[in-house]
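Notes taken during the Thursday session

The instructor put the following on the board and asked us to keep it in front of us for the whole hour. The protein is Carboxypeptidase. We were told not to look anything up and to reason only from what is written here. First, the residues (248 in total):
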Amino acid sequence: MLVARIRRNAGALGPFRVTEDNKTLSRNMNAWNNVANVIFLESPAGVGYSYSNTSSDYDLSGDERTADDAYVFLVKWLERFPEYKDRAFYISGESYAGHYVPELAATILLHNTYNNRTVINLQGILVGNPYLDANRNIKGAVDYFWTHAVMSDEVYANITKNCDFDNLNGTFTDAACMGAAVVFDSGYIDGYNIYAPVCIDAPNGMYYPAGYLPGYDPCSYYPTDAYLNDPAVQIAFHARPTKWSGCA
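Then, after some discussion, the predicted structure tokens were revealed:
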């Protein structure tokens, strides 16, 4: 079985962690490569260390282009390793992969109908916590915060009264909705896990976790960012000198 998992970053599943000295690595004992072969494909072109020799390519970035490029990669990989061509193929992902996964699947199915092309044996797709559209994402967050005592009854009632979450074009342009939403202050919490510790930025420039949770470091992006921007690391990766960021 072949599985292509689409994530926004490899911080949760990669083989290494960057230690607090910003220079050395430690093993991730729960890494996926302990039980499977893993290839990381930076997509769309321009993220991470990837780049295009044609600058106009960046102006064409989008979900459709991402699916087309990922399809080309998969076909060329299967042509390079033909022993995997008949394997069952699944695509899974979370967050914005709610767009990437079905669009790549649709691209594969379309190309599979043509003659004389590599057929990818797509058997199914999976999406977890998918980002489908902004309105439903925000509506889900509002409901979650309210049902978990992060948002008051009054603020929740005002938001649900003034925000039309069924109107995909109206929520962010409606003054009453925006006025009701800006009143809400979630405080300093992790929106992805309100019970997890957060990273505290101290006035002296230092940082530290707000609490201890085994196996979880909310400040891990600091050493990761420093490591991947280290010129020596970029040279070792044979990457072009670049300003790397987790989200750009």
